[in-house]
Amino acid sequence: CQANVIFWSVNEGFFMSLLTKFLPKKQQEELSFGIAEDESHYCIVYLKQAQPIVNFYPKSTSLIDILATISDFAGKKKRIIRPVPYHYIWRKYLIQPLNVDKETIFRQVIQTIKQELPIAIDEVYFDYQVLPHKAQKITQIIIYALRKRFADPLLLDIDTVLDCELQCWQRGFHFLMQSPPQNGQNYAFKEKFFTFKLNELSIQNECNENYLSLNDLTFPENVVSKELYILALGACLWK
Predict the structure, then answer these.
(1) Greatest C-alpha distance within the chain
(2) Does the pLDDT of residue 93 top 90, yes or no?
(3) In this model, does residue 31 exceed pLDDT 90?
(4) What is the pTM of this model?
(5) How far apart are the C-alpha atoms of 33 and 237, rounded to whole Å?
(6) Which of 15, 18, 30, 218 is packed most tightly, with the most Cβ within 10 A?
(7) How far apart are CA 233 and CA 225, in angstroms?
């Protein structure tokens, strides 16, 4: 299971969408829209009766105006999830004892960010994931940080989540394949190959092992860009 990357800030507390985790379950019911983009198009995907609804729009129209034209968007509690390029996100993998307490983890996260990032901690949003590995008797901590100057232009007045594009890709890919991801699975992505490993995100220019690519999937006829579709689909599946 990979992290849902929701960045938060030392100065501002939890970052927008993270607040919804603390609301009563009934209030958390939202319509999630995944939005991916390239130089010419927005791709917007959401689920209706568990089926993806996909539309492409030229970027000559503002995103807010586009969202206002979607009938399912009106009058409902909404959440936007947007993929962020993986190379914008700083990552650090740490190992701790299996039963380390939450306060110790948080202090180490803050200390690590302050020591290893070349910019001040108040210039980034950050998040971290804690993964117990009982067989190895360790706790894995994955720290993520994103510069505010990269993140802020992506934020809308609507509740917005920023997620790593590689995790969106994996999520959308396996939704279309109707199968769960496997540990150590290789994926082809934008002329690169990536794998989520225990202690790293591996990104290579070549891959000599089996990997999943666009050729393994079947797409609807109205898909303008297969890459944008997978990213937007994976984004809307964020939880």
Answers:
(1) 53
(2) yes
(3) no
(4) 0.83
(5) 9
(6) 15
(7) 12
